[in-house]
Amino acid sequence: MEEAKPLVLIVDDNPTNIDLLVNTLKNDYRLSVAKNGPKALDYAERYLPDLILLDIMMPGMNGYEVCTRLKTTVQTKDIPVIFITAMSETEHKTRGFEVGAVDYITKPFHAAEVKARVRTHLSLKKARNHEIYIASKIQKTLLLGQPPRDIDRIKVAQLTIPSQQVDGDFYDFFKVSDKCFDLVVGDVMGKGIPAALLGAAIKSHFLRVLNELIRLTDKEKFPEPEKIVSSVHSGMIGHLNDLETFVTLCYARFDLVKYLLTYVDCGHMRTIHFQDSLNTFSLLQGDNMPIGFPGQGTFSQISVPFGPGDLFVFYSDGLTEIKNRNGNLYGEKRLVDFVNRNARIEPEKIIRNVWEDIIAFSKSDTFDDDITCVIVKIEKECSGRALSYESELEINSDLKELKKVRTFVREFCENLSESLIDNNRINLIELAVTEVTSNIIKHAYNKRSDNRIQINAKASNEKIVLLFYDWGKEFDSKSVPPPVFDGTQEGGFGLYIIAHTVNEVDYSRDDKGENCTCLKFNLTGGY
């Protein structure tokens, strides 16, 4: 695919100047024009041009003000700005560079000069972007660890969004045994490549400390989290003081034999612990200072029990300090409420939902600070023929998706023991879910294909529960007349089929407009 030409925004209130610049650049670039400052700012935020040619003397908002606004806005601060103006005095050029311009062209200009300077600064921008891209690839190797894949009943999902393509947030995992692992999540004060390098150094120091402590202690006993953190602090305090920076972090050990979390919190954001059995949450916080603060010689750890189905959310302050256009913070409360609503779905899905929620809140996908979120979920145990697991599917409200729904349900059922469910029963379940999904598409969404349907499947050794969520028109099953079986009625048999296929069906709608259809199929005691 051919690479698109760079987009250049021309900002000038003089039609003659605009025509000259357009004729000079039209063969080499995509061009857009704004005739005043506010329109230029609006366009820049919406379309992010590759370069801006900006006049200074404009009515209402001059070029200096426009450039200042561009450079103080996260989305536009890296767009190169070239002033092109009749103001040739040294003080005007100096001010132009002070507010963030990369170059200054005086009128009347020569076409060859404009072309050369535009080409030069676009080349520099492309080179910087390539360097940052390479650095971000290196960052993923140095700063972002991979969770252990061979520890049963643990599911982990991660999200990291750097503010400048490269950041100082880091996390890593250390396997203690087949039933135990450690997680460290940290945030270096600062941004960009320097913070990333320091984060990589601290992460590397954790590995050296672990190896050294294991060598010096009983091989059968892994060093305690508080000992590990204290040793890292001792080894890094001098470097951190020299650089006048510090690191907040949480070091957590998950022991699946004792069902115990032991953690050392060093000034980090409070970890969210959702307790499945109680359907509630707690916020975990220690009283240690960040790594690099003088006077903190030793660090203390805290232990809390957890159970099957529990969920832990570790995150950096970049997440809760996201602002919307009114200047309001996303905040800890919104995140906790979000986790409570989503705690029983898969961690990967929670991470995707977090991303979508912060985008919806901020109306942007570019942020002032680095964002990191790591979710650890303790899966529920299965023993013998007993099953306790969940799966989910999200589809568009399109009848073409029915095949996907049937496949999802069949694969889910086939994971159960043959002694619990046979092929005939699976066929009946497929029939019921097809009718429910069709009804949602046809009636709740009036056949509009641009909406979504979420299906959650849950199974135990006693029953299968299928939950269908939609946000369309409310459904009242009592308002539907019973079908007529005299051959005169072509449709309208869906509810009858559902009612005679499942053991229990329930329709509900909450105060936020979410509809839920719940189907229950008994796996014991016959159909």
Describe the protein:
The chain is an alpha+beta fold and 527 residues long. It has three domains: 7-136, Response regulator (Rossmann fold); 144-378, PPM-type phosphatase domain (Phosphatase 2c, domain 1, 4-Layer Sandwich); 388-522, Histidine kinase-like ATPase, C-terminal domain (Heat Shock Protein 90), CATH 3.30.565.10. It is 36% helix and 25% strand. It has 13 helices and 20 strands. The protein has helices spanning 15-25, 37-47, 63-71, 90-98, 111-143, 192-216, 225-243, 317-320, 331-342, 347-362, 402-414, 423-444, 494-499; strands at 7-11, 30-34, 51-54, 81-85, 103-106, 154-161, 169-177, 180-188, 247-255, 260-266, 271-275, 280-284, 302-305, 311-315, 371-378, 388-396, 452-460, 463-470, 504-509, 515-522. Strands 2-1-3-4-5 form a five-stranded parallel beta sheet, with helices on both faces. A five-stranded antiparallel beta sheet has the order 6-15-14-11-12. It has a five-stranded antiparallel beta sheet with strand order 7-8-9-10-13. Helix 4 (90-98) links the parallel strand 4 (81-85) and strand 5 (103-106). The chain is flat. It starts with 6 loop residues before the first strand and ends in a 5-residue tail after the last strand. Residues 382-387 and 484-491 have low confidence and may be disordered.
